[in-house]
Amino acid sequence: MEKINTNGQTFFQTEEETINLYEVIQVLYRGKWLIILVFILVVLATATFTFMQDPIYESTAVVLIEKGKKGVGLTEAFDITGLSEQRNIKNEIEILKSRSLAEAVAKKLIERVYVDPENKKDTILVILPSKKELKEGIKPFAKIETILERFKEDVKIESPRDADIIKITVRSKNPKEAALIANTFADSYYESNLMMSRNESRSVRMFLEEQLAEKRKLLRQAEAQLENYMKQAGVVALDEESKELIKQLSDLESKRGETIVDISSAKRKLDSYLEQIKQIEPEFVKVATEALDPYIKYLQEEIAKLEVTRDQIIAQNPKVGSKEVLNKSLREIDEQLASLRKKLQDKISEFLKIGFASSGSPGTQSYDPTGFVKELKQKILLTEIELSAYEARKKELDRLIEQLNKKFETIPSKLIDYARLERTRLSNEKLYLLIEEKYQEAMIAERSQFGYVQIIDYATPGIKPVSPKVHLNLIIGIVLGLGLGVTIVFVREFFDRTVRSPEQLEKRGFTVLSAIPVIEVEVKLDGKQLKKDEGRNIAAHLITHLNPKSPVAEAYRVLRTGIQFAKLDRKIKSIVVASSAPKEGKSTTSSNLAITMAKANLKTVLVDADLRRPVLHRVFGVKREPGLTDYLFERAELDEIFRKTDIENLYLIPCGVVPPNPSELLGSEKMKKFVEYLKSNYDLVVFDTPPLVAVADALILANQVDGVLLVASAGKTEIDVLDKAREMIQRVEGNVIGVLLNNFDASATYGTYYRYYRYYRYYDYYGADREKGEGNA
């Protein structure tokens, strides 16, 4: 805190002024025109920018991802990761964002959308009929790469939280185009998903189709060979025992053939999976082919033995239901199978967990944000287990066929060739029928696959544009304009150290005696045509005399009253009028103050003590010499330096010759005696002095007079410099009676002093005559 002593009173003032609501309002009021200007410019710029933009339309297609619409197979049965039960929406979003799908959409659009050559600057903008209906000279609108770049900017794929839907949103200058692109994306995604869903079934169907054709050919060959042999050998039939043996062998061989087909199908599927994982994580291929647990293989072999044994019992005894012993054997086999299958399922689950934990090191693991790699690994391991089960079954069937082959060799030699041909025919026939049944099932499975994507809503052309948002932009412009204007005003206020208002001076501890409005004067004076600048300057100095009814003259009368009551204990008879810096209106103030005092019937003398740049002699139209300096240099007598003015009770002492040493002259003993003489012979002595900060002349007189009147100019005088001037006066034990604020625009200030503005207007309107009766003031 800073301690200040003024007029014998001690108070404290903080270095930083307290900011309160009143000060904020005052700053805003003072900068209102700047705020309005910035506001108008920003709003106009925002409006211009908004209305110059092309309208943008938006259309959205919505697709549903149906989680439960998936096949149930070995992968789903051992789904320890949960990926099969819950389709990851992120996967589908990535598919929609993929380049392959975007290219498919672009190709479809190229077949449908064209643009007139005159509008080449637009990409997809004018939707025309199909290629056949195009006029000559109209070419496709863009290349695929151009469309893909457009998609990156204008197509947005997103999924609402906790929902199984995906929104495909497209923006375009043409509402129909936006809807077309969104719908093309939805259709292409649906078709792609349908194709992906049918891929596995299609692969199985095509493989079975190949096998069916091959087995049909083998069956026909076997039938032809048997027929030819029977004609040549004359064999008609086999005995019952041979027929039964051939039937058993053909059954086993057909099952082995079916198992071989299953093995081939599983291998093809496994190779496809391995090829995919090889591109992402090559190390896993070796791990996957060597990682199958031996115990799993053992369980599969045991299950295969029991299943084959069970099938044999049923095949050899068609009426097994009526035989209690056989029923008991089948129940025991079923119990053993159930136990082994439970163990196998537990072991497979355990194996999968271990397999995922140990497949590759953290450094070599591929980045898998959507879980695709993890799901692929699971399919590989489960397919290997499936393949191992088929191979175990084939191994057991080979063993049984080998046993029956030994028995087959015991058939009489005459019938052995016939038996072999019949056996081959039966095996091929049964295998053909099995494969044909599987082929029909595969066809039905393929055609029943509709994917898990469903288009809920097709996009429709937008009616209203979504951009530019006129109301929002204008609101932003209004807020931004006001905010920027207020910011500029406060920044300007922060860096502005000049005096703006009487309240600002009072907060710094100054006593404001009066605030003088901006003086507006005419150039002509008393019928004399003067130079424009000179006339205005003189008129300003004599405003209280030339226009006594003006608000400015009233403000000077307020100053006179303030000085008269500045000291209640003693009367002020001598005043130094000084400013902190040049051109702040001290000479105008001293002239009008002296005139106002004289008009109050006070015998007043105005002394031009500015020995460096004297001006008062020109203001009052008198000669500069002889003057004050001539008297101090003893070049003139006392009565020679006084000038009687046209104003009653007012006398002027001009500067005289400009001396080389003004400070020494003003500090001389003769000057002190002269001051005392004036004080004793006149009611009021007013000294016009040079600026305080520039020279020491005013300080020399400060402690010889009753008080110092500091003059400040609104918007020009720096508050810190004014503080410095006060400090200098106090240092020489001078008495600052108050401050006069010049050029104060009360209409631009909100606050206490705003009433001056209203008061001056009322005074000017009514033309109150303040000259009468002022002798008692």
Automatic annotation (TrEMBL):
Localization per Swiss-Prot or TrEMBL: Cell inner membrane
Ranges in a coiled coil: 205-255, 296-407
Any Gene Ontology CC annotation: plasma membrane
One Pfam family, short name: Wzz
Domain of life the protein comes from: Bacteria
MF-aspect GO terms: ATP binding; identical protein binding; non-membrane spanning protein tyrosine kinase activity
Membrane topology note: Multi-pass membrane protein
Domain AAA, first and last residues per copy: 584-713
Alphabetical list of InterPro entries matching this protein: AAA_dom, Bact_polysacc_biosynth/exp, GNVR, LPS_length_determ_N, P-loop_NTPase, Wzc-like_C
Transmembrane segments: 33-52
Residues annotated as signal peptide: none
Residue span, Polysaccharide chain length determinant N-terminal domain: 17-109
SUPFAM superfamilies from the UniProt entry: P-loop containing nucleoside triphosphate hydrolases (SSF52540)
Catalytic activity: L-tyrosyl-[protein] + ATP = O-phospho-L-tyrosyl-[protein] + ADP + H(+)
Residue span(s) of domain Tyrosine-protein kinase G-rich: 420-493
EC number annotated for this UniProt entry: 2.7.10.2
Protein keywords: ATP-binding, Cell inner membrane, Cell membrane, Coiled coil, Kinase, Membrane, Nucleotide-binding, Transferase, Transmembrane, Transmembrane helix, Tyrosine-protein kinase
PANTHER family membership: FERRIC ENTEROBACTIN TRANSPORT PROTEIN FEPE, TYROSINE-PROTEIN KINASE
Entry's family note: Belongs to the etk/wzc family. Belongs to the CpsD/CapB family.
Protein name, per record: non-specific protein-tyrosine kinase
